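Design a sequence for this backbone.
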């Protein structure tokens, strides 16, 4: 998979995309992550990428031209499955969406800033809009990082134990059961006895029961 991220602040990705699982995916050659500074595509001598909104109002708007020029350059080199705009009013990211995106070959993600991007980009070049929650961030960079992490970890070969991703919360109808590790006794808090029993049937039954309870509490909290 190749992911191209379009942003005004490429430095925000330097640490996140080069650590842990995402770094491993790139080192293995499973994923390519490319960050593009939209200021490099500005046709303005001062490298401006934003301007006042037509009709007035507070906030600046990212110009269409730098974004479209970058998209066109990338699309001239390869085809893309989706051109994604990170937006608080996009479709809410969930595990099913992450699963589908993990099957794609090439993705472009656009990170907005200020008051947003020129609507014409959204109308004519963007194929998908994704939100990571019903709240507003300073820019789309954090959202793009979240989406990248959510989909890349699902690609075969990225995780050392691929069954781990399949048992994650939200992969099925139930949330994942509680997990514990050593020591058995931490400041008087004891690991449930069934997990120490070695009886895998009873352990599976316990985990299923705990998943049911956890999922029910989550459902009630949403209501």
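Sequence:
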């Amino acid at each position: 998979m190749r992911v191209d991220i379009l942003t005004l602040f490429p430095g925000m990705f330097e640490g996140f995309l080069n650590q842990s699982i995402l770094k491993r995916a790139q080192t293995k050659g499973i994923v390519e992550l490319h960050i593009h500074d939209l200021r490099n595509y500005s046709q303005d001598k001062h490298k401006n990428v934003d301007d006042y909104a037509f009709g007035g109002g507070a906030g600046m708007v990212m110009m269409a031209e730098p974004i479209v020029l970058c998209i066109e350059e990338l699309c001239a080199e390869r085809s893309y499955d989706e051109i994604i705009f990170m937006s608080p009013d996009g479709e809410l990211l969930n595990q099913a969406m992450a699963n589908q995106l993990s099957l794609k070959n090439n993705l472009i993600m656009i990170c907005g800033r200020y008051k947003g991007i020129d609507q014409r980009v959204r109308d004519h070049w963007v194929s998908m809009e994704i939100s990571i929650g019903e709240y507003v961030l300073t820019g789309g960079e954090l959202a793009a990082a979240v989406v990248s992490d959510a989909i890349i970890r699902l690609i075969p070969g990225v995780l050392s134990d691929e069954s781990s991703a399949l048992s994650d919360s939200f992969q099925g109808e139930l949330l994942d059961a509680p997990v514990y590790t050593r020591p058995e006794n931490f400041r008087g808090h004891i690991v449930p006895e069934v997990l120490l029993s070695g009886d895998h049937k009873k352990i599976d039954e316990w985990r299923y029961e705990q998943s049911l309870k956890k999922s029910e509490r989550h459902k009630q909290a949403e209501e």
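The two ends are 38 Å apart (CA to CA).
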